[in-house]
Amino acid sequence: MRGIVTFVRVTTIFFTILVFLAHMSCVWLIIRDRWRRVRWSNRLLGYYSDWGLWVLNVKVNPIGRENLEYLRGGLFVGNHLTYLDVLVISSQVASCFVTSREIKETPFLGQICMMAGCLFVERRNKQNILNEISEIREGLQVGLHVAIFPEATSTNGEQILRFRKPLFKAAIDSGRPVIPFCINYRHVGREPINKQTRDKVFWYGDMAFAPHLWALGGSGGVEVDLHFLKPIQPELKSDLTELSERAQAAVASVFLPVK
Q1: Residue 135: CB atoms within 10 Å
Q2: Measured between alpha carbons, how far is residue 67 from residues 70, 114, 138 in Å?
Q3: pTM exceeds 0.85 for this model
Q4: Which of 115, 128, 149, 240 is 20–30 Å from 102 (CA)?
C-alpha cells in the first residue's frame, strides 16, 4: 500500500513540474518586461509550491511573519538543507531565488530554474560576480524578494557553514534590508529528525535526485519550522563581513543542529 501511495505522489510531482513548465512558458511568451515576468513567475512558483508540499505531505510552520510586514523588496538569507527548502520558502513568500550557473547548465533542472525566474551566479569566476551583484541589486530595487543560500551548498544539518559575503553587497547597494531565515526540519513520518532519519529529507553531497524523491514520497510526511528573523537594515558604508556575520549569527540563534 505504501508503495502505491509513493508512486502516486512522485508521479503527481513530475506531472506538476510539466504543468508548471507549460504555465511558465506562457508567462514568458506573454510578458516581455523582464522584471514583471520574474515577479509573475515567483508568484506562480508560490502556488505550485503550496500544491507540491501538499502532495508530499509537508507541513510548514511559519514563525515570525510579523517581521515581513510592510516589506517591499529584501534579501532573504538562510541555511540550506534540501531542494524542499525552495518550496518551503516560496509557499510563504513569493521569492526570486539565486542559484549557481552550474545548476543552470544542468538538464531539466536548469530549465525549471530559468522558468521560475531564478537569477544565476558564477561562483567559479570572480570577475563576473560584480555584474551578477548588479543584477540582484536591480531586482531588489524593483521590489522583488530575492532569496539566497549563502552557505553555497546544502548541508547535512549538523552545523551552519560560514556565509559567503559577496552577494550581501546587493542589499547594501540597493538599500534594501537583509532578512535572515532559518529552516528547521522537525519530523519525518512519526520520527524526529536525527542522524538516522535525516537522509529521508535532507539532500546533500552526491545524492541522486530521483531515488531521494521516491524515499521522500514514502516517508510518511514532514514537518518543518520556517523562522523569519528581524530584518537587518544595511547602510551604504556597511562592512560586508560584519553584515554577513550578523545574518549568520541570527540564523544560528534559532538553528537546531541534527544530533
Answers
A1: 16
A2: 9, 29, 23
A3: yes
A4: 240
